Amino acid sequence: MPNQWPYQLRVTKYNPANRDANGYYAVDEWISPSDIGGTFNGELLTLEHYLNVEQAYIDTIMSFLEECQVETMRMFMVEHREMDSASSLYEQKFNEMAMQEDKVVQLDDVPTIGRMVLRDFAYCQLVATNRTFIHFGWDYYMYIGTVKETPYAIASAKENGLFAECYPSPYQIGEEDIIRTVEWGLKEEETIVGDEEVKGILREELQRALKLSNEHPVTGSFSINASQKEFFQRYLKHEMDFEKYDYYLWGGN
């Protein structure tokens, strides 16, 4: 199967010259905004320095979107996280940004979403089908995939003090590699008490059942309600009981 994203890059503040033969980063550097105020490799991480690096990431993202002629994106794998309004990194507009699974995102909103994710106030992946994806990873790693070469955006990353390396995103999963399971837990409890892999369901069927767009990869976690029982039950040995359990579909690898 041809690679949907033939050009994938790891775009970070980490200089590849500082990696050992096994790829491990050998220099002590900050990896999160929570490190502000700490000392790394003999240098104090100030709020000002953090914000400058963060802006470099945002500017680089926008350069890739411009070169790929992206007009809108979609938001996948959305996670809501607690925001501390007393934090020096908090901005009122973060509360005004609706983080919703499968939402269409206008380009003007991408910088705000990027800052929320980089500051650990939320999480999502941004995808423009057949154009580009933006994946945020742990420890201030970022991965960008495109369908064409992007020399100007790569040059922009370098000008911003970042490093763009040819490297596949660990968050990009082909449909053939996705494992999907139905999980269930006792009502009003967070613990999962059972799960069962579901096979033979076309992604298009899941998109319709879960009311997702035809661009959604159906990865991540989705609540299953009683109205969807008939659809999912045909693929399960477990007898679904919505009075006793809460159900979820999980897709990943």
From TrEMBL:
It comes from the Bacteria. Residues 179-250 form the DUF7683 domain. It holds the Pfam family DUF7683. This is DUF7683 domain-containing protein. It comes from Cytobacillus horneckiae.
